[in-house]
Structure formats: structure tokens, C-alpha cells
Amino acid sequence: MRRAAAFLAFTALLIPAISSFATPPQGQAPLRVDVRLVLLEATVKTKAGVAMTGLHQDDFILTEDGQAQHISHFSRDELPLAVALVVDVSESIRPFLQPLRDAAVTALRALKPEDEVTLFTFSNEVNQRIALTKDKQKIVDEIATLRAGGSTNINGAMAEASDALLRSAPDERRVIVLVSDNVPTDNGGLSADETIRHAMAAGVSVYSLKVPGDNPLSDRLLAKSIRGLINVGRLVQQTGGEIFDSQKEGSLFVAFQSLMERLKTRYTLGYYPGHKSADGKFHRLDVKLTNSFGSKGRDYIVVSKKGYYASLTPEK
């Protein structure tokens, strides 16, 4: 009972801090900023890549712009999770659609009953197939209907999924799982920097479930000639996610399971910044462990987002 009351009190306080656009896209409402509680998630791994799961609040040191911050809130896999499963259905992914459905059946079971999932697909255009739901079977059933064809608009898919998560799940942990060969061939009218801003504005962590893809030389050459295509590795690194390569993991099934299990080993850290009003500036974040654990990068690895701008809400 005490644990439930504490959890409710904790979730009631959550107002995620996220970034605003320097110049809002044409036709989009201006954004009003209001910094309160800054939240970030971190995965801590040994040098061998094993997640460290027994850490406590006092084990962490968090800085903003080089200044140490008091960690006000701390948890591991307690807050509800909102996952946007964003599936590439371009021609190069055709061989992987059936294995993806088989993997999703098991992997989505790793989520808690209260966690929600939304399904997006993309080729030339981006489509939200299923809105956020706790019914994971609806996601699996919809994946079974997918057909492949067209180019690869990762830029647009990441921006639209980020915006949708922010609107639909403002008080949840927000994660995008991108299922793709990570070879974009269409920028969707967005630059790479704009795509990253959308993700950071929504406070999402982007995880990549990478499949080999079937890309002829002509498509790879075309991708290099198009300006502004997103580099998925950079997007993942900036938002504090990870890449799970199905070839390195052994199969799509194993990679998907590993990714979903990783989401359960992420620590949520929250603090109130010293600046009381949003300044529109980028604030750099760094997370490490206390000296008793050794040196970050040498003795352990921390995966977390690199910073934020300011909390934002659409102006009414």
C-alpha cells in the first residue's frame, strides 16, 4: 500500500522537460516553454556490455552544464512506458516482415500490462496504424497485414512518431523502436537536424532494431546523393538509445527480445534545474557513477541523452 501511494505521488509530479524548435515548422502552432522537473533515463553497463541492475540513487552523479544537480526522483522500470513501434515497410524490408511478426509475439510480452504501444509504418509516407493501446495483440495482428514497397522516409517517421508520443503520453516514459535497415532514401522534407529536434522535443529515446535489408547498389548510391538524410546512429546516440543489430545478435527474434529487456534496466533520474524559466538554450547533461565504481568509459558505460532545451507545450 505504501509503495502504491509513493508511486502515485511520484507520477503526479512528473512534467517532462524537453526541447523546443528554434523555428517552428510552417503551419505548426508556436510553442510555450515552462521548465519544471527534468527527467532523463540512463542505462549503465559494464565494459563487457552487461547491464548493471542493482544501482541506487546515491550511486549516481548528474550534472547540467557542468553543475552538479540534486537528484529528486529515482526509479527503475516503475513508470508506465509508451512505445512507438515504427516499422520500415519499404521494398528492402520485404523478407523480414514475417519474422518480425513472429518476434513481436514474444518480445512485446516483456512489457508490463500498463505499458502502451502504438504502431507506425513508413515507406514514402508515414502511417499510424494503431493508436496507443495496452492490447499488445492488436499490434501483433496488424503487423501480420503489412505489405512492403516504396522508398525509406526515416526522417518523417521519426518526427511523426515523436510528436504523436508527446501528444498522447505526456507523463510516460517515451521510447521509439525503429525497425529498419537504417538506409534512408527519402528525407520527407525534413533535415537531419530537424528530425533530431523533433525527437528531443518529445523527450523520446530512440532504439534501433536493425535488419540487413535488401538494398541494390543503385539505391545505396541514391541515398548518398540526397541531402539531409538522417544518420540513425547519431539519432540514437543523441537521444540515449541503442542499436540492436539482428545479424550480430543472431536473429531478429533474439535482437527484439534483447531490446525489450533493455528497456526494463533503464534508470529514471529527475531533478529541478536552477534556472526557473525556459531560456530556449541547449542544456548539456552528463550522468556518471560515484568514484567507487571507477572511471566512466574505462570501467563502465552510461547510455543517456546528451541534453535538452526546455519544456514545451503547444500554445492554445
What does this structure look like?
The protein has 316 residues and is of the alpha/beta class. It is built from nine helices and 16 strands. The chain has helices at 2-12, 97-107, 136-143, 154-168, 192-201, 217-225, 232-239, 246-249, 252-262, and strands spanning 31-33, 38-46, 60-64, 67-68, 73-76, 81-88, 116-122, 126-133, 173-180, 205-210, 243-245, 267-271, 283-289, 300-304, 307-308, 312-314. A six-stranded mixed beta sheet has the order 8-7-6-9-10-11, with helices on both faces. Strands 5-12-2-14 form a four-stranded antiparallel beta sheet. α2 packs parallel to α9. Residues 1-35 and 312-316 have low confidence and may be disordered.
What keyword list fits this structure?
disordered C terminus; 4-stranded antiparallel beta sheet
For the record, give the distance between the C-alpha atoms at the N and C termini, rounded to a whole number: 39 Å
* Radius of gyration computed on alpha carbons: 19 Å
Helix proportion = 25-40%
The low-pLDDT segments are 1-35, 312-316
- Strands, count: 16
Structural class: alpha/beta
Strand order of the largest sheet: 8-7-6-9-10-11
Major beta-sheet overview: 6 strands, mixed
Strand content: 25-35%
How many helix segments?
Answer: 9
Encode the helix/strand succession as letters: HEEEEEEHEEHHEHEHHEHHEEEEE
Short description:
It contains 9 helices and 16 strands. The chain has 316 residues and is of the alpha/beta class.
Summarize the SSE layout with pairings.
Elements lengths: L1 H11 L18 E3 L4 E9 L13 E5 L2 E2 L4 E4 L4 E8 L8 H11 L8 E7 L3 E8 L2 H8 L10 H15 L4 E8 L11 H10 L3 E6 L6 H9 L6 H8 L3 E3 H4 L2 H11 L4 E5 L11 E7 L10 E5 L2 E2 L3 E3 L2
Parallel strand pairs: 6-7, 6-9, 9-10, 10-11
Antiparallel strand pairs: 1-16, 2-12, 2-14, 3-4, 3-13, 5-12, 7-8, 13-15
Helix pairs in contact: 2-3, 2-9, 4-5
